[in-house]
Amino acid sequence: MAELVQQYLDRIRAEQIDTRDGALANYIPELANVDPEGFGLSLSSSDGYVYESGDAALEFTIQSISKPFTYALALDLIGQDAVDARIGVEPSGEAFNEISVDDVTKTPKNPMINAGAIAAVSLVPGAGPDEQFDRIHDFYSACAGRRLEIDMDVYDSEKATGNRNRAIAYMLASFGVLDGDPDDVLDVYFRQCSVKVTSTDLARMAATLARGGLNPLTGRRVIDAHVVRRTLSVMVTCGMYDATGDWVSAVGMPAKSGVGGGIVAVLPGQLGIGVYSPRLDARGNSVRGVQVCRNLSSQLGLHFLSVTRESSSTLRAVFDAGPGIRVYEVQGDLLFAGAEQVLRTADHDRGRYDVAVLDVTRVDDINDAARGMLTGMRANLTAAGKEAYLVDPDGRVVPADRHDDYDAIVFRTLDEAVNAALRRCAG
Ligand code: DON
């Protein structure tokens, strides 16, 4: 069966193989020395199975795809408030290397443009640039699930030609946004841009984000889930530079591109994608990479704002199980919208029962909002002179050791609950 998915990837890649639009980045001389035909595509499932097509083992420099990862690391290590004090989260609509800060706050507009990325580097704790870089290097490697290497030629080339980044770093230092020596910060930034990855590394790094910070290959938690959410948010709004609006409309996945020719894209909870093809469009995004992602999204239905089957499927069945006893069977993943539907339906029916039996046996997952709403439902019903019973054999809504806290009447099977309700109504 896996061949089927392999065939999709091979076909989508083959559709772009003759595309030769765009040009290699040449503002850093070493970047122009790669084979323009290199073309790799990798997709990791959220449980870590990787499909590869084409040059998926070919290494290239990560470049700006480093930015969301260093931002995540800074958030993880010093916390969101400290990071927010130095870097905004507003799209800039400007080129990646714009020498700019926010007019009012005098901080970089977001961490995906160079100004914000350089500021993020300076926020990574460490006794000096080597220690800071070691942390960054270890972190990228933990996300990829293997030790990544550095391309020293690209690093030298970046350093030799990085005057624009120097202008940005010194400007930030003048506004008090950078801690430490701007040249030290830049050295770490140039090194992080020169880390070598393959499209498969990117797919694995993306899958780690898709899994909320758990690397599905190694099973290690490498990022806190809240940090992942913030990082993905910034990737959605700022990840593809001034082409972000186009990207979100057409592809609909949090993503980040780099001038090395890579693109990383994440479908939260589902999968991670890495693509490599070094010819870039005018905005610095891989031409074939963007096209492949557009086609993957439309052909495999990956847009994160596609409205899937609605929460109407939450209420699986509603029926009377005896005089004054009404049963609500709930299924699937129960989030706010589903819980709201359950509450509203039970409320609407109120005149029809003395005991409402809520059966969550078939609920797969539930979040805190929905849990709070369902336990609150019982309080409301008792206040109205009714009873609410819960059938919750796996402790999804009310964990077994917390029945007392919630004052809940919990049963293991629907039969037990209905029998208890019959006795109550008879008594
Ligand atoms: O800052 C630079 O110039 C590069 N080393 C990284 C820039 C980059 O990848 C921009 N991306 N599209």
Automatic annotation (TrEMBL):
Belongs to the glutaminase family. It comes from the Bacteria. Its EC number is 3.5.1.2. GO terms for molecular function: glutaminase activity. This is Glutaminase. It catalyses: L-glutamine + H2O = L-glutamate + NH4(+). Residues 315-397 form the STAS domain. The gene is glsA. Substrate binds at S64, N114, E158, N165, Y189, Y241, V259. PANTHER family: GLUTAMINASE. The lineage of its organism: Bacteria, Bacillati, Actinomycetota, Actinomycetes, Mycobacteriales. One of its GO terms (biological process) is L-glutamine catabolic process. The keyword Repeat does not apply. Homotetramer. Keywords: Acetylation, Hydrolase. It is an enzyme of class 3 (hydrolase). PROSITE patterns: STAS. SUPFAM superfamilies: beta-lactamase/transpeptidase-like (SSF56601), SpoIIaa-like (SSF52091).
